[in-house]
Write a structure and sequence with these properties.
Elements lengths: L2 E6 L7 H14 L3 E5 L2 H7 L2 E4 L26 H14 L3 E6 L1 H14 L3 E5 L15 H22 L2 E6 L6 H10 L3 E3 L7 H13 L5 E6 L5 H12 L3 E5 L11 H19 L5 E6 L2 E6 L12 H10 L2
Parallel strand pairs: 1-2, 1-4, 4-5, 5-10, 6-8, 6-9, 7-8
Antiparallel strand pairs: 2-3, 10-11
The structure holds 6-O-phosphono-beta-D-fructofuranose.
Amino acid sequence: MQRIGVLTSGGDASGMNSCIRAVVRKAIYHGLEVIGIRRGYSGFIDADMGPMNLGSVADIISRGGTILHTARSERFKTKEGRALAMENVERFGIQGLVVIGGDGSFTGASIFSQEHGVPVICVPGTIDNDIAGTDYTIGFDTAVNNVVDAINKIRDTATSHERTFVIEVMGRNSGNIALAAGLAGGAESILIPEIPFNVEDICKKLLNGIKRGKLHSVILVAEGAASGLEIGQQIKALTGFDTKVTILGHLQRGGIPTAFDRILAARLGARAVELLMAGETHKMVGIRAGEIVATDLTEVLGKPSPINKDMYHLARILSI
Ligand code: F6P
């Protein structure tokens, strides 16, 4: 193998730049050339790509987002779109591809590699931490820290005004961000799609809290579980409490990547290059119990990535 391509696809995640840096430098270290593909599969189809060198990835380790830009491509879901991408693989002499993204991006990578025989290694990069075969995805830790930071700030004003706050967080169909940030931030209730909840029970807990002198409450709602606005309205109607709602939105996705995300990104990116050099394909690199492992995409795609129920129960116990 002499030349590989690298792209980021789907929602950006802090740490993607650290991963791009690892892919480029590890490849160059081993004498490979690297083509950076911009705007995910859109740039793959449109030939928006060019050579990268050691300097292309200088000073990016601490930057959130992705220098390669990213996109969600509808055209790559079509045979015609993928055929155009294949033309660019030939034109640019790409012999292997590293795809940094989430489940949707991996589905595209899997189909493309099977359709055209191009070796592909996927690296999980999404704040949602919703991918089977890895304990953590790049960007999750930074997003959780962003949410905890927001909870800390909201707690100050919530205490001052003795208010109840509902905070809606991202995660698509996964409650992982809400759960981790809720435990770290000391939320009174955590609503996640994986566990059924009842707003009346949440209100009873809030009322009990007030009785024992609590000055404020924070309820974390995963976007996949419910609308924060609706939960806020229901709580206000049932308790009469001054209830405010904050939807954190995309601020969760940005910011300086944590050391955890940078280290994870470096290890996963480097292993992806090693796998391509070893002739592997159709795999995702991940971290399990601290070890970097490779899993075939057939065991990743569409497979559930369960939440940690022990953590959920602990969060409940600690917020009585
Ligand atoms: O997958 C990452 C994510 O941030 C989800 O948590 C969220 O549901 C979605 O992307 C938002 O996508 P967009 O940035 O396209 O609105």
